[in-house]
Amino acid sequence: MKAVWKNTVIADSDDTVMVEGNHYFPEVSVNREYISFSNHKTSCSWKGQASYYSINVNGEVNLDAAWYYAEPKEAAANIKGRVAFWKGVKVS
């Protein structure tokens, strides 16, 4: 699977975990050159608190376009150490 934004591969892995229609990529498969930490957080009743990354490609920023659960609840333990994408990032 690849996560692509602005014709740039942000993540690439054969080992994704599908949860609620989203592919969660291993953190090590994410190209850190294109992401930066965001202060944005959200909460899910069964997964826990999500933290976000913004994506920056050639000076264009996609705010909060990736998320992860640093300390997921037990029911979502399989996505610990993984990152998912949205906001126009194509995963295929």
How does this structure look, described?
The chain is an all-beta fold. The chain has one domain (2-91): Metal Binding Protein, Guanine Nucleotide Exchange Factor, Chain A (Beta Complex). It is built from no helices and nine strands. The protein has strands at 2-5, 8-12, 17-19, 22-26, 35-44, 48-57, 60-68, 82-85, 90-91. A six-stranded antiparallel sheet has the order 3-4-8-7-6-5, with no helix packed on it. The chain has a three-stranded antiparallel sheet with strand order 2-1-9, with no helix packed on it. The radius of gyration is 12 Å and the shape is globular. The mean pLDDT is 98.
CATH class: Mainly Beta
The main pleated sheet reads as: 6 strands, antiparallel
Structural class: mainly beta
Order of helices and strands: EEEEEEEEE
Chain-averaged pLDDT: 98
Q: What is the CATH architecture term? A: Beta Complex
In CATH, the homologous superfamily goes by the name: Domain of unknown function (DUF427)
Helix content: under 10%
How far apart lie the N and C ends?
A: 5 Å
Strand order of the biggest β-sheet? 3-4-8-7-6-5
SS element count, helices: 0
Number of domains: 1
> How many DSSP E strands?
9
In percent terms, what proportion of residues is strand? over 45%
Rg estimate, integer Å: 12 Å
Which regions are unreliable across 5 or more consecutive residues at pLDDT < 50?
none
CATH topology-level name: Metal Binding Protein, Guanine Nucleotide Exchange Factor, Chain A
Q: What does the secondary structure layout of this molecule look like, with pairings?
A:
Layout: E1 2-5, E2 8-12, E3 17-19, E4 22-26, E5 35-44, E6 48-57, E7 60-68, E8 82-85, E9 90-91
Antiparallel strand pairs: 1-2, 1-9, 3-4, 4-8, 5-6, 6-7, 7-8
